[in-house]
């Protein structure tokens, strides 16, 4: 029996054959040649347009999934490492078949991801949304460098490095959501792309690193944790926002203290940033904000804080509520001028 030559068949027959194949088989077939990749791309446009985003799950194994607009999920690529006293193997599954290759620790896993992600994106396109959920039990330097990621969650146990985070962010800047759950050793570059992420959630208590983020952040939402933040750091941050020197896009900043913040110099801070207090004629406003905890932008928790204290930005009179206590420093920017803000807070 002679093998069937796909290119010799009419267009509609080619399309029907490809429509009957799962995405694992489609992806493997696309690796055969550039001609085959172009053939698949042109005949599977309708199918590919039904894909909402691609989910990269990177742990001790790799799994790449296509998530459709109707909520269904289809696996495209899988690779599982196995360990024995003699050797370490990575097992990859495509169209129901498995192949193995010897590899030290996670090296092959990351190389395989990078090698397969290039033809993957050529086939499906860069305009799709890509999400990365990564947990590594090995050296933080193993974080793969991927392109065009919309949102990511990185956890490299026990630690990662500032250089590694910079490298990862440089390949996919301007993400909507970037979360780092592991400790970060060392500092970020002063031009790190992390500062430009729309939303960042950094579970790190490296005071120097957190301070760098506070000074250079250009996104909208920042959620941080630190062991130390000085009075001068808070004063500098608020005054730079007031003068419109920085943080023009900021909507909310929340910094949690690992240890109780010393409030003995609170009056000095308030005087230095020009804090204003609502009078007894006003209701204490409750500032509401949403916080994501994973890659799904629709999966978030609603939070709020109440404060009578606020500051006003000089050039447009925008108001920001300020909360400073022993546990947290929070600032939330209202889309209101001071007059509108005071009117909103008037007791009825």
From TrEMBL:
Q: Name one Pfam family in it.
A: F-box
Xref: InterPro entries: F-box_dom
Transmembrane annotation, as ranges: none
Q: Residues in domain F-box?
A: 3-51
**Protein name per the record:** F-box domain-containing protein
Can you name the source organism?
Caenorhabditis remanei
């Amino acid at each position: 029996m002679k093998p069937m030559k796909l290119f010799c068949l009419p267009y509609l027959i080619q399309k029907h054959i490809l429509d009957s194949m799962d995405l694992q088989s489609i992806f493997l077939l696309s690796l055969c040649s550039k001609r085959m990749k172009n053939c698949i791309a042109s005949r599977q446009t309708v199918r590919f347009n039904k894909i909402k985003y691609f989910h990269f799950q990177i742990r001790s194994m790799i799994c790449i999934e296509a998530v459709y607009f109707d909520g269904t999920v289809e696996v495209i690529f899988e690779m599982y490492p196995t360990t024995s006293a003699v050797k370490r193997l990575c097992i990859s599954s495509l169209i129901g078949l498995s192949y193995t290759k010897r590899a030290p620790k996670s090296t092959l896993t990351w190389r395989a991801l990078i090698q397969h992600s290039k033809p993957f994106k050529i086939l499906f396109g860069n305009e799709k949304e890509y999400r990365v959920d990564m947990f590594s039990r090995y050296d933080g330097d193993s974080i793969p460098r991927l392109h065009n990621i919309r949102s990511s969650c990185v956890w490299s146990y026990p630690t990662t490095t500032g250089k590694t985070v910079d490298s990862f962010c440089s390949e996919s800047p301007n993400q909507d959501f970037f979360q780092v759950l592991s400790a970060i050793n060392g500092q970020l570059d002063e031009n790190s792309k992390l500062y430009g992420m729309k939303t960042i959630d950094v579970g790190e208590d490296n005071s120097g690193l957190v301070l760098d983020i506070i000074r250079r952040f250009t996104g909208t939402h920042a959620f941080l944790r630190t062991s130390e933040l000085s009075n001068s750091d808070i004063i500098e941050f608020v005054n730079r926002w007031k003068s419109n020197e920085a943080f023009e896009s900021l909507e909310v900043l929340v910094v949690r203290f690992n240890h109780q913040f010393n409030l003995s110099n609170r009056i000095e801070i308030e005087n230095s940033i020009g804090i204003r207090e609502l009078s007894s004629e006003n209701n204490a406003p409750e500032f509401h904000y949403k916080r994501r905890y994973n890659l799904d932008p629709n999966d978030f928790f609603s939070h709020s804080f109440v404060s009578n204290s606020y500051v006003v930005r000089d050039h447009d009179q925008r108001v920001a509520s300020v909360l400073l206590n022993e546990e947290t420093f929070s600032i939330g920017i209202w889309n209101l001028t001071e007059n509108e803000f005071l009117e909103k807070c008037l007791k009825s």
